[in-house]
Amino acid sequence: MTYECLGNDRYQFTLRVYRDCNCTNCAELDPVAEIGIYRCTSANNCSGQSQASPFQQVSIPLQSQSPIDEPDYPCLVPPNVCGEEGVYQFVLTLPQSTSSYFVSYQRCCRNVTINNIIAPESSGATFAVELTPQAQQVCNSSPSFDTYPPIIICNNAPLVYDHSATDPDGDLLVYEFCAPLLGGGPNLDPLFYNTCGGANPIPACPPPYFEVTFRAPNYTPGAPMGGSPTIRIDPSTGIITGRPTFQGQFVVGVCVSEYRNGVLLSRIVRDFQFNVANCDPTVVADIEEDFQLSDQEFVVNSCGDYTIDFINQSFQETYIDNFEWTFEVGNGQTQTFNEWNPSVTFPGVGEYEGRLILNENTDCGDTARIFVNIFPAIDADFSFAYDTCVAGPVIFTDLSTTGSCCLTDWRWNFGDGQTGRVQNPTHVYRDPGNIPITLTVRDTNACESSKTQILNYFPVPALIVISPSAAIACQPAELFFNNLSFPIDSTYLINWDFGDGGTSTDISPFYTYEQPGTYTVRVSITSPIGCATDTTFNNLITILPSPVAGFSYAPDQPSNLFPEVQFTDASQGAIRWQWDFGGGPPGSPFPSPRVVFPDTGIYLVTQVVAHPSGCTDTATAIIDVIPEIRYYLPNAFTPNGDGNNDTFKGVGILPGIMDFQMVIWNRWGEPMFDTSDPTASWNGQKNNVGQQQPAGVYLVGVKFKDPRGKPVELKSYITLIR
Fold it and tell me: What is the pTM of this model?
């Protein structure tokens, strides 16, 4: 199914349905195609839309029905294969949306004789296209395939079929084999015939749509026909190539994805049945050549070797009844060969002509015309020179020869990822090793020769270079010494002396200086073949003394009741201080500040101290200023109306209290008072409005959570005095 944007949110859709005329127990083309339209945020979310309540539903009559022409195969008698195409066209108005529209048609079932999927006789098909929000925004028109698929493919014959499409907007098209979609089912019961599980859903059902199941591992969505080489589709051109090796019928899905500026606009799926048949084949004369002048004209070149082993690649070999090779070898002489792959010796340098003739004097014969060039020999050779102990350039000298006019091209592969095109190059290697050097030369006859030699390259660096070239750091100082010298690798013996008794054999080590001072660094390098060099870097590293930060504080547990904290400096070697109290009190430059935290919470307190050298150190502590609740229950009250101790309630510091509940019971367990208000009080009456309660002892239960959610539970006895 494809679509064309007509503007003003109107789209013309074209549905092309292909049918195997020889299908067993298969339905005819529907006189009316029942189309379901669904608006979905994704293929898995259609917002409650169903077959019973689609976004839209249309019934489209069959507009044309025509046979698909059989391909014209010379010397081929195809089996009885029949295909026909039905075309349905309709126009829909689809308001622009941030959701996709899925336009679908479904029908069951497929040909029972299909080889590459499981249960084809009960596997229906969904022909659908998604109109994406991106496509709606730009009034996009989908690509359309240019031609019919071939209804018959010859078994064991090379397949080259152009399955490309054309996009009216010139968008980038990417092709792939993909899994065809299931739709409908084999149920022919009239009660279910038009449901999602029936043979003719009316209308087509909403996504998600499931895929047919291939008979893996021999057949998969990406390799639906097998073959040797495997049948494949070029993602850029849409050309299908390969060689089928099994006769049968194969379901193939071809998808073309349309991209504009890197954005996927649409994905069109063609679901088709490919018929692979044993054909009375045409034969093609073919050989292994250096290059091909035309369909049946081949050029074979030999450089310095007068004997050529010809490789016969003619096909179909089974149907080649007779063949003959003939070559003109000079002085009017002709040699004839009847081997499939003959070995032919020519008299010397020169140009010769021959032929490979298949099934001579028959309608399905073929002839290959062969042009043979025997060129003079060419031999690649070279030498190299270098200082084996001290790194420097390697000088290469070309020693190649040719019997032709002259050499025209030199291609050097220096074995380190670098190449060259001059005749006698000079090359500098950064890495040691047993390095393969390859020279390929070419002469005026386009003959080529290659030679590889091994360069055993293990010199020491001409100059030891390290980083840092100088460093001043604070104690303790971890430094990275980067050895920039070349060539070196792990096969070299490298010794570092850091000037404080510490050493390393790493190529580029990390090292920590613990004490202040000025240090001289020495590096020595010995190659695997015993060459050695060393360098001393005097006074390379200066380590400055650092202070030691530290402090204590009191009280150990500050709170909203005791928010003042005394910090006491415990640093060593410091002359300057800077405090940061984590967003609470303002910072301080004093050694031992006293601060008041404005609120409860967790504060990261940081002390930075400075040494006279300018080096600094930092100490931190986490200060938790906790919120405290203090709640007390009196043990008696006198509700006699004298204005003194007339009601009962808890007292204390209550800000931040949560989920409060207080219940008072009499001695028989009957609730007398219940409140969730911590400030509410009991006046001695039942629920503060009922009968006056007698003097006596009552049970009080209180539950609440503190500001950090910690549960608290209190129980006490109170005495009511009258």
Answer: 0.49
